[in-house]
Specification:
Chain B: InterPro entries: AAA+_ATPase, ABC_transporter-like_ATP-bd, ABC_transporter-like_CS, ABC_transpr_MalK-like, ABC_transpr_MalK/UgpC-like, Mo/tungstate-bd_C_term_dom, NA-bd_OB-fold, P-loop_NTPase. Chain B: Belongs to the ABC transporter superfamily. Chain B: One of its GO terms (cellular component) is ATP-binding cassette (ABC) transporter complex, substrate-binding subunit-containing. Chain B: It comes from Paracoccus alkanivorans. The complex is a heterodimer. Chain A is mainly alpha-helical. Chain A has one domain: MetI-like fold. In chain A, 79% of the residues lie in helices and 0% in strands. In chain A, α1 (4-45) packs across α12 and α3 (67-108) crosses α9. Chain B folds into two domains: 4-234, Rossmann fold (3-Layer(aba) Sandwich); 241-366, OB fold (Dihydrolipoamide Acetyltransferase, E2P), CATH 2.40.50. Chain B has eight helices and 20 strands. The longest helix of chain B has 17 residues, at 166-182. The chains are: A mainly alpha, B alpha+beta. Chain A binds chain B through residues 176, 178-179, 181-188, 192, 196-197, 200-201, and chain B through 50-52, 71-74, 77-79, 81-83, 85, 87-89, 98-99, 102-103, 146, 150. Residues 42-43, 159 of chain B line the site of magnesium ion (MG). Adenosine-5'-diphosphate (ADP) binds next to α1 of chain B.
Chain lengths: 286, 367
């Protein structure tokens, strides 16, 4: 007969904690719906006709016809997607490799005036892209890169190096220097230490940096809009805007195009969820 | 000619000098141990020899060749790091092969050397594992294996046992001693803060303190004839008892010291100068003290505390000094208890005498 006593004492506390958990769960559920529903609605609307979108905006599509998706794809989304992939992939590779090599130099070599150089590089984070816009346009025009993928690749790389270097440098500072010293005793050169010891050891932060860069480059609008003018070099954010301007009334097709453009990031997210979350916490300076 | 000569080596970090002009000669095939309290510059000296630190001034020669500006990998040196520093993303085999691959050695040769090292260190079964999947002792052996395959002239160890538990530490210490026997031509330099490791492993010991060499010598020599009070108290456990005193009589072949614990002691020592009244410090090792029943004694007092170690007991004797007890290592069978009054004696030849700067004045006979 000793069992009921503690149970009745514990009961009120249990009710409150269950309630609190239920409220929290409900809140998270609402948040989730708030984020996911519009995306889902957009994707589903891509399967409707334009009139259906207006007559029954919240119904499920009557059939899953890919017509809008195919039309959007052929209306230019294919080329925007290609541009986005090229610009994002190339600038991600350049940014991360250059930043990692810079971080290696800043953390592992005995260069003179290291604090000054570090401050100079990291100070780049303060530079607002808008301020530099006009000189950059002139510069790109004069070296003939205006309206090419190269313009975006170079700009994205240049503007993201300070931040990415900052991330990787912080990580490298934490790594014990024994390992690269051991490699030095083994006769490895700086290049070999970098490629064969440091990069593998820095994999978590490298992956995070790549993800953060992809998020940035995939969605970047300002530079993309200003430095490209032809449809065949425009990236998705700019391309979609021009698509909307052209087919402003065909919402079904616009929604299909948007869904296609969001899809790669969503897939990437599910593949690399683990790194994504770390990347984001790393990005806010954890 | 010495394998390794160090001349007036200084090392500064910014304005702070860490090594203050070190001179050392290390012979070929010697097992040399650097010992000293933490922060005294042992690792810095070792890393300077390895080439991981540039020396600020002075000369480092290996087999007569100036090494100051030779890169680490070209010095014929291998190093076992305190943390082992195994490459975590490589298997044991790749860890050992890394340096040889970089040197462009042929595959069969690499494989043969790895197998040889794995045999010596009983690592054959673990070659395809990653360091993560090994125990502390196995990682330690891999680190040694990575050094062996390089076939170095000089082998450097930086506190290699400090990450192991007590039992494994003793076992690994013995393995290292055997490894040394198996490689008689290889010079080994071993850094530790543990004087027991130093005493058991070394051919010769270098005692360092605050970036100065205090004494260099064979373990027995440091034990019997410490050059100063620091070495006297650092080598040997428990540490030597040191009591302040004053010389009151010079008897030609011995002097008599009146010490702070209200006793006198005769010390075998021949002194020419006028020494009466000179203030000195008298040292006696706990193991050199024994019970003096009714005969002459140098200390008398009350037992304050006893630590039983089985075979021996460490008796802390309150001799009337406020800040210091005299420790004696007495046979474990003696029937002693806290509060007992006892007297301790020692031979005139086992007393050490230091001047008020802590420099040695005498040696036990034969020392
Ligand atoms: N990279 C460094 N920068 C500045 N001071 C250092 C550096 N490495 C070691 N020191 C200082 O040098 C002294 C000796 O260090 P170390 O050789 O590591 O001592 P230990 O005898 O414990 O191995 C210490 O006071 C330490 O603080
Ligand atoms: Mg050290």
């Amino acid at each position: 007969m000793t069992m009921p006593a503690p149970a009745s004492q514990a009961a009120p506390a249990n009710i409150w904690s269950t309630l609190a958990r239920a409220v929290l769960l409900g809140f998270l559920l609402c948040l989730g719906i708030l984020v996911i529903y519009p995306l889902l609605w957009m994707a589903l609307s891509g399967f409707k006709t334009n009139s259906q979108i207006f007559s029954a905006p919240f119904d499920l599509p009557t059939g899953f016809s890919w017509a809008n998706y195919v039309a959007a794809w052929n209306q230019g989304v294919r080329s925007f997607l290609f541009s986005s992939i090229v610009v994002t992939a190339a600038s991600a590779a350049c940014t991360v490799l250059i930043s990692a090599w810079t971080a290696y130099g800043l953390t592992r070599t005995r260069m003179p005036a290291k604090p000054v150089i570090t401050a100079l590089i990291l100070g780049g984070m303060m530079l607002s892209p808008t301020v530099a816009l006009i000189p950059l346009v002139r510069m790109m025009q004069s070296i003939g890169l205006y309206n090419t993928h190269w313009a975006l690749i170079i700009l994205y790389t240049a503007f993201r190096i300070p931040f990415t270097t900052f991330l990787i440098r912080a990580y490298m500072l934490e790594l014990p220097s024994d390992l690269d010293e051991a490699a030095r005793m083994d006769g490895a050169s700086d290049g070999q230490i970098f490629w064969r010891i440091m990069l593998p050891l820095c994999r978590p932060i490298i992956v995070s940096s790549v993800i953060l860069h992809i998020l940035f480059a995939w969605n970047e609008y300002l530079f993309a809009m200003i430095f490209t003018s032809d449809l065949d070099v425009q990236t998705l954010p700019v391309g979609l805007t021009s698509l909307m301007a052209k087919h402003g009334t065909n919402y079904a097709q616009v929604f299909a195009a948007m869904t296609i453009s969001a899809l790669p990031i969503v897939i990437l997210f599910f593949l690399m969820q683990r790194y994504f979350i770390r990347g984001l916490t790393e990005g806010i300076g954890k | 000619m010495a394998e390794l000569t160090i001349r007036q080596v200084r090392k500064s970090y910014g304005a702070m000098e860490v090594l203050h002009g070190i001179d050392l000669d290390i012979e070929k095939g010697e097992f040399m141990v650097f010992v000293g309290p933490s922060g005294c510059g042992k690792s810095t000296l070792l890393r300077s020899i390895a080439g991981l630190e540039d020396i600020t001034s002075g000369e480092l020669r290996i087999e007569g060749q100036l090494m100051n500006h030779v890169p680490p990998s070209k010095r014929g040196i291998a190093m076992v790091f305190q943390s082992y520093a195994l490459y975590p993303h490589m298997t044991v085999r790749d860890n050992m092969a890394f340096g040889m691959k970089i040197a462009g050695m042929k595959k069969p040769e690499i494989e043969q050397r790895i197998r040889h090292a794995a045999d010596i260190l009983q690592l054959g079964a673990y070659l395809d594992r990653h360091p993560k999947a090994l125990s502390g002792g196995q990682r330690q052996r891999v680190a040694i294996g990575r050094a062996i395959v390089r076939d170095p002239r000089v082998f450097l160890f930086d506190e290699p046992l400090s990450n192991l538990d007590a039992a494994l530490r003793v076992a690994t210490r013995i393995e290292i001693a055997k490894l040394k026997q198996a490689m008689p031509d290889t010079t080994m330099i071993y850094v530790t803060h543990d004087q027991v490791e130093a005493m058991t492993l070394a051919d010769r010991i270098v005692v360092l303190k605050d970036g100065y060499v205090e004494q260099v010598g064979a373990p027995k020599e440091l034990y019997r004839c410490p050059r100063n009070m620091f070495v006297a108290q650092f080598i040997g456990s428990p540490a030597m008892n040191i009591i302040e005193g004053r010389i009151v009589h010079n008897g030609g072949d011995h002097v008599t010291v009146e010490h702070a614990a209200k006793g006198t002691a005769e010390i075998a020592l021949h002194m020419e100068e006028e020494v009466i009244g000179r203030s000195v410090r008298m040292g006696v090792r706990p193991e050199d003290l024994s019970l003096a029943d009714d005969g002459p004694h140098i200390f008398s007092g009350t037992i304050d505390h006893i630590e039983h170690l089985g075979e021996v007991q460490l008796v802390h004797l309150d001799v009337g000094l406020s800040n210091q007890a005299v420790i004696a290592k007495l046979a474990g069978l003696l029937d002693l208890a806290r509060g007992d009054q006892i007297r301790l004696r020692t031979a005139a030849t086992s007393l050490h005498l230091f001047d008020d700067q802590g420099e040695r004045l005498n040696g036990p006979a034969g020392g």
